[in-house]
């Protein structure tokens, strides 16, 4: 592994990993009723907001009711996807043995099938975080988000593709599993997508039928307004999720790695990669809840299966450990991180911004692999 990681000796890497393991072990041992009560309260709030939002759309002829209904439904969809769905499907509440909180049974309000997402996100992204050609979340097979990605004229549209992905984010997450980029390269066949594609069609059909057929029809003559309200709520959720996720992965100074650099990495080196490949977003308590605590992306990448509500209480410790070892702790307000991401997207659309990755010396590489 390269760059800042060369500052740590093998002994430091081992001690660094041990200190983070201690945080994890302490939190796991402390999990209990407070965590269960928290997620149940969030679920109750989300359901109340959804019922309220859909109810207000029945009075959509009155503009304030329509606006309030769309706002309530938007927040409900954000909570369902981020603070509930994302975190439950990570297995953060499997220890409760509650079927409603089972990572293998939960299904979210999103066109992306939970089963597909668990593979592409839980396994591929969190195992191979920011490893080029392994972590397909780098650019989602659509964008150039790292200078080591070979430039071609297609990437001149980088900003346009990013805006389109933001507006259609749930669909982008769904189609992500078709791996179009690998098909174009000849590494995958269309026939390989049959099973995955059928799951997508089934889930997307249910979502489209619910938001754009069933609920609009239930409001009778107000169907067009309800259709528009549901579309607006989905758009709001898409833009919010895109912003939070991209700000946690792609601001300036977030690093990426090669397969060779991460071969045979130790637990401490894996932790190191998560910190160097992630960024946080500062904000208040409500803001963090609305992000599903993915505003603590560093802590999430370190401990993806620990209830996200615990991230704020350990963030200070993680930051102190980073400072102790001279490692960066990338954090900043939403507007700053979002501007940084936008700047990178535009910059990497240009051919002259392709840079070869710095490589470690042979001695450093051998030393770290021996750690």
UniProtKB/TrEMBL annotation:
Q: Which residues form the Fatty acid desaturase domain?
A: 65-331
Q: Which residues cross the membrane?
A: 56-79, 160-178
This protein's UniProt keywords: Membrane, Transmembrane, Transmembrane helix
The protein's matches in InterPro entries, at most eight in alphabetical order, are given as: FA_desaturase_dom (IPR005804), Fatty_acid_desaturase (IPR012171)
Keyword hit for Membrane = yes
Q: Name one GO molecular function term.
A: oxidoreductase activity, acting on paired donors, with oxidation of a pair of donors resulting in the reduction of molecular oxygen to two molecules of water
**Does the UniProt entry include the keyword Cell wall biogenesis/degradation?**
no
Supply the name of the protein: Acyl-CoA desaturase
Q: Can you list the GO cellular component terms from the UniProt entry?
A: membrane
* Signal peptide extent: none
Q: PANTHER family per the record?
A: ACYL-COA DELTA-9-DESATURASE, DESB, FATTY ACID DESATURASE 2
Q: Which domain of life is it from?
A: Bacteria
GO terms, biological process: lipid metabolic process
Organism (species): Amycolatopsis regifaucium
């Amino acid at each position: 592994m390269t760059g800042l990681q060369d500052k740590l000796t093998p002994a430091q890497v081992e001690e660094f990993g041990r200190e983070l393991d201690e945080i994890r072990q302490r939190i796991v041992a402390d999990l209990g009723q407070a965590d269960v009560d928290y997620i149940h309260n969030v679920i109750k709030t989300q359901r109340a907001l959804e019922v309220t939002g859909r109810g207000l759309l029945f009075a959509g002829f009155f503009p304030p009711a329509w606006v309030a209904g769309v706002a309530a439904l938007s927040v409900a969809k954000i909570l369902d996807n981020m603070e509930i769905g994302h975190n439950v499907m990570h297995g953060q509440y499997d220890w409760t043995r509650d079927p409603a909180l089972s990572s293998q049974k939960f299904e979210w309000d999103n066109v992306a099938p939970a089963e597909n997402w668990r593979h592409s996100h839980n396994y591929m992204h969190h195992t191979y975080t920011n490893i080029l050609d392994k972590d397909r979340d780098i650019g989602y097979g659509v964008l150039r988000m790292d200078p080591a990605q070979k430039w071609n004229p297609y990437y001149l549209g980088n900003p346009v593709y990013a805006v389109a992905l933001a507006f259609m984010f749930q669909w982008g997450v769904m189609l992500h599993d078709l791996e179009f980029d690998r098909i174009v390269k000849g590494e995958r066949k269309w026939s390989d997508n049959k099973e995955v594609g059928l799951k997508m069609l089934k889930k997307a059909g249910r979502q489209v039928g619910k938001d754009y057929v069933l609920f609009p029809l239930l409001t009778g003559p107000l169907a067009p307004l309800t259709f528009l309200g549901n579309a607006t709520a989905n758009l709001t959720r898409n833009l919010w999720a895109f912003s939070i996720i991209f700000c946690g992965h792609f601001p300036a100074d977030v690093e990426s790695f090669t397969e060779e650099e991460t071969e045979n990495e130790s637990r401490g080196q894996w932790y190191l990669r998560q910190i160097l490949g992630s960024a946080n977003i500062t904000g208040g308590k409500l803001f963090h809840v609305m992000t599903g605590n993915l505003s603590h992306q560093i802590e999430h990448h370190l401990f993806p299966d620990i209830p996200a509500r615990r991230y704020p209480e350990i963030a200070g410790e993680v930051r102190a450990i980073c400072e102790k070892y001279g490692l960066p702790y990338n954090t900043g307000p939403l507007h700053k991180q979002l501007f940084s991401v936008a700047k990178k997207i535009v910059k990497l659309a240009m051919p002259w911004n392709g840079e070869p990755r710095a490589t470690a010396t042979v001695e450093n590489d051998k030393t770290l692999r021996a750690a």
